């Protein structure tokens, strides 16, 4: 059975991607900070006939990715698909942004996917794929999103560089850009007044899965 590892897999887009890839025959490995939500996501996958393993981890911890990769190595598990989906958004006027806001944003949106990719690159199968969920904030700057956009531009540069570095191999590095979705991403923010008007993550997930096998860049405007 193929293995798919998803960060931020307990809810929102990550959970929908997990459900779809599970139905495609992947064993889903879910990473998230909330053990209860991870357990619920695993139950949903198993109820639909799939298989899932959960890993309650805080990827803001610099050694989390290496420790998890060591576990996979010890179990002799290879990865077919890594989806770096976990992300945070702290919005507002730039002068009001604190150092803690900057550190939290970059630890989750930049360092975590870079460290996950570095840790699991030796465990990717020869024709493996990495999908980095970036957002349209990685394509253009936006008002009151300076730090968020900066983090997503960094992830874009990382992804595009790996596309060049490994273009002569069978490894694929896919950059997925999309606008806002109706997900728990907005639960701790009043930046979007009514997320219910945004697209559901299932629609975005379906588009990503559909295009990821053929394209290295997926842009979904919402």
UniProtKB/TrEMBL annotation:
Coiled-coil spans in chain: none
InterPro entries: NAD(P)-bd_dom_sf, Sc_DH/Rdtase_CS, SDR_fam
Pfam families: adh_short
Entry annotated with the keyword Transmembrane: no
GO cellular component: membrane
GO molecular function annotation: oxidoreductase activity
Official protein name in the record: SDR family NAD(P)-dependent oxidoreductase
Oxidoreductase in keyword set: yes
Keywords in alphabetical order: Oxidoreductase
């Amino acid at each position: 059975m193929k293995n798919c590892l998803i960060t931020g897999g307990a809810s929102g887009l990550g959970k929908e991607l997990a459900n779809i890839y599970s139905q495609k025959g992947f064993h889903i490995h879910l990473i998230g900070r909330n053990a209860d939500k991870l357990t619920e996501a695993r139950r949903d996958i198993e109820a639909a006939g799939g298989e899932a393993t959960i890993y309650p981890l805080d990827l803001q911890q610099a050694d989390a990715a290496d420790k998890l990769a060591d576990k996979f190595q010890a179990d002799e598990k290879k990865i077919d698909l890594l989806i770096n989906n976990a992300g945070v958004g702290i919005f507002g006027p730039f002068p009001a942004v604190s150092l803690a806001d900057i550190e939290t944003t970059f630890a989750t949106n930049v360092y975590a996917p870079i460290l996950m990719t570095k840790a699991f690159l030796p465990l990717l199968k020869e024709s493996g794929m990495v999908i980095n969920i970036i957002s349209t904030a990685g394509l253009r700057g936006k008002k009151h999103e300076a730090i968020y956009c900066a983090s997503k531009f960094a992830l874009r540069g990382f992804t595009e560089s790996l596309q060049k570095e490994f273009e002569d191999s069978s490894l694929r590095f896919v950059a997925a850009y999309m606008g806002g979705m109706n997900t728990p991403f907005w639960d701790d923010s009043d930046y979007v007044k009514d997320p219910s008007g945004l697209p559901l993550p299932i629609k975005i997930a379906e588009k990503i899965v559909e295009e990821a096998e053929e394209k290295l860049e997926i842009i979904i405007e919402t």
